[in-house]
Automatic annotation (TrEMBL), chain A:
Residue ranges constituting the UspA domain according to the UniProt record: 2-124
Spans traversing the lipid bilayer: none
PANTHER family from the UniProt entry: STRESS RESPONSE PROTEIN NHAX, UNIVERSAL STRESS PROTEIN RV2623
Protein name: Nucleotide-binding universal stress protein, UspA family
Automatic annotation (TrEMBL), chain B:
Pfam families reported for this sequence: Acetyltransf_1
Keywords: Transferase
CDD domains per the UniProt record, alphabetical: NAT_SF
InterPro entries: Acyl_CoA_acyltransferase (IPR016181), GNAT_dom (IPR000182), MshD_Acetyltransferase (IPR050276)
GO molecular function: acyltransferase activity, transferring groups other than amino-acyl groups
Name listed for the protein in its UniProt record: Acetyltransferase (GNAT) family protein
Keyword Transferase on entry: yes
Spans annotated as Disordered: 1-27
Domain spans labelled N-acetyltransferase: 29-179
Length: 124, 192
């Protein structure tokens, strides 16, 4: 499957990275990691990209993953890439939890869920 | 997640627990602060084990006994405020204030009423007692998120005095000020 993972550096997106890479190894997915500009994230896109590279470098399996820095509005750019390049699935972090434990979706996930024509997976 | 701004105006005084009343189904209900005991914790866990998952809000309460215990251990912590609505030895409802972190002045609020006790006026008393409890202890501000379609909850919060602070996401953010912000030493000096 051709999978597009969007991550902006929030904790839930980094969890999604680990799980999506594991799945890509197990299922032989064709994975592209899009590093997005998430205004709600404390990490810069460059820091996130470095983190992605280090996760990939630690892998024992040999898979080919493309990492891209995506500038501009994160939600709409992700959808554009998914549609124009024929991805089967968009994967995103499944939301942060409040002090109480309530799940709160990020603004990128909300936009993508409502607008994407591509199937979307939220990683919990 | 915590709103950037809270209402400037301080809300009215809320009644402090314990509060006893007869609900609209003629049941004797008493709202009391959680006393920290195992017995009360077990009774609360039993309420959540009986809870209908259709009334789950943004993932809480969790669905399984061990997950419920884990969740309760974080929100029944000493730095949180918890009030329980009792019907005899059974817990009918629970409301809680959880701080956003260490030394936080703002607390996140949640309330759950067991299905067979809903629509009997218990929720209003429960939330008022929780706010009275926190207010008397100096809690400055309270916030919550609520799913957009949950009109019953939104109108309850509005009736209590909450204002909408964020209407741009899937969940509506609401907030309320219980006490004036604590004045810093600098501000006091500037006044003199």
């Amino acid at each position: 499957m051709k999978v597009l993972l969007g991550i902006g550096g929030s904790d839930d997106s980094l969890r999604a990275l680990e799980r999506t890479v594991d799945r890509a190894v197990a299922a032989d997915d064709d994975l592209v990691v899009a590093v997005l500009e998430n205004p709600d994230s404390d990490r810069t896109p460059e820091e996130v990209a470095e983190h992605v590279e280090s996760v990939l470098a630690d892998l024992e399996a040999d898979i080919d993953v493309e990492v891209r820095l995506v500038e501009g509005d994160p939600g709409s750019r992700l959808i554009d890439i998914a549609e124009s390049e024929g991805f089967d699935r968009i994967v995103l972090g499944g939301g942060q939890t409040s002090p109480m434990g309530k799940i709160t979706l990020g603004s990128i996930a909300e936009f993508v869920l409502l607008n994407a024509k591509t199937t979307v997976t939220l990683v919990r | 997640m915590t709103p950037d701004r809270f209402p400037e105006e301080v809300a009215d005084d809320y009644p402090e627990p314990p509060i006893a009343f007869t609900d609209r189904e003629d049941r004797e209900i008493e709202v009391r602060a959680y006393d920290g005991s195992e017995r009360e914790r077990d009774a609360l866990a039993a309420m959540y084990e009986a809870f209908d998952s259709a009334d789950r809000a943004q993932g809480i309460p969790p669905g399984h006994a061990d997950e419920i215990r884990k969740w309760l251990s974080t929100i029944l912590d000493a730095d949180c405020y918890n009030v329980l609505a009792w019907h005899g030895d059974d817990v009918a409802g629970h409301a809680t204030l959880v701080p956003a972190g260490d030394d936080a002045d703002e607390y996140e609020l949640a309330i759950f009423v067991l299905q067979k006790y809903q629509e009997a006026g218990i929720g209003t008393r429960l939330i008022e007692a929780l706010l009275g409890y926190g207010q008397a202890d100096g809690v400055e501000a309270v916030w919550l998120t609520v799913e957009r379609w949950n009109h019953a909850a939104v109108s309850l919060y509005e009736k209590i005095g909450f204002e909408t602070s964020d209407a741009e996401s899937f969940e509506i953010g609401m907030s309320l000020r219980l006490n004036r912000p604590e004045r810093t030493a600098d501000a006091d000096e500037a006044d003199e």
